């Protein structure tokens, strides 16, 4: 694996592209009556559609973490996992690929959420 030298421009590109994605989500929240959960679904589905059209890969190569961390990146990863699994396993890959790509992120969220609840002692409200 070839390592490349990071520079300050990498951080700026990631900040700008990630900021644009988040700003678009904020505009949706402010200008529409859509609930935040629906906006999250729109972002994930946008990542899938942009990936299927071949538009998300160049953005991802340009901005790296700026494009992979927001929810659109999660949608793109789901699409990528499904297409790789379909190529490898055929029709059954349609069901298997998304779970394989999302498993690590979902598992980490559950584990770290549980650890945070042990450390910070959440209070239940009625």
Structural notes for this entry:
With 126 residues, the protein is an all-alpha fold. It has one domain (8-120). It contains 6 helices and no strands. The longest helix is centred in the C-terminal third of the chain and has 28 residues, at 93-120. The radius of gyration is 17 Å and the shape is globular.
Topology record:
Blueprint: H1 8-31, H2 36-52, H3 56-63, H4 65-68, H5 71-89, H6 93-120
Helix pairs in contact: 2-5, 5-6
Strand content: under 5%
Give the beta-strand count: 0
Structural class determined from secondary elements? mainly alpha
**Ends distance:** 53 Å
Helix amount, in percent? over 70%
Q: What's the Cα radius of gyration?
A: 17 Å
Count every helix, treating DSSP H or I runs of 4 or more residues as helices. Answer: 6
Mean pLDDT: 85
Q: How many individual domains?
A: 1
Low-confidence stretches: none
Described by strand count, sense and barrel closure, the largest sheet is: none
What sort of overall outline do the alpha carbons produce when their principal axes are compared? globular
């Amino acid at each position: 694996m070839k390592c490349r030298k990071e520079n300050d421009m990498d951080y700026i590109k990631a900040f700008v592209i990630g900021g644009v994605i988040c700003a678009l989500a904020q505009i949706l929240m402010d200008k529409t009556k859509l609930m935040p959960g629906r906006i999250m679904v729109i972002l994930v589905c946008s990542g899938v559609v942009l990936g299927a059209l071949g538009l998300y890969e160049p953005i991802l190569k340009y901005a790296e973490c700026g494009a992979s961390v927001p929810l659109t990146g999660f949608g793109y990863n789901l699409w990528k996992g499904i297409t790789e699994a379909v190529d490898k396993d055929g029709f059954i890959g349609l069901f298997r690929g998304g779970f394989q790509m999302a498993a690590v992120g979902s598992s980490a969220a559950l584990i770290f959420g549980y650890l945070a609840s042990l450390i910070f002692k959440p209070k239940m409200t009625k």
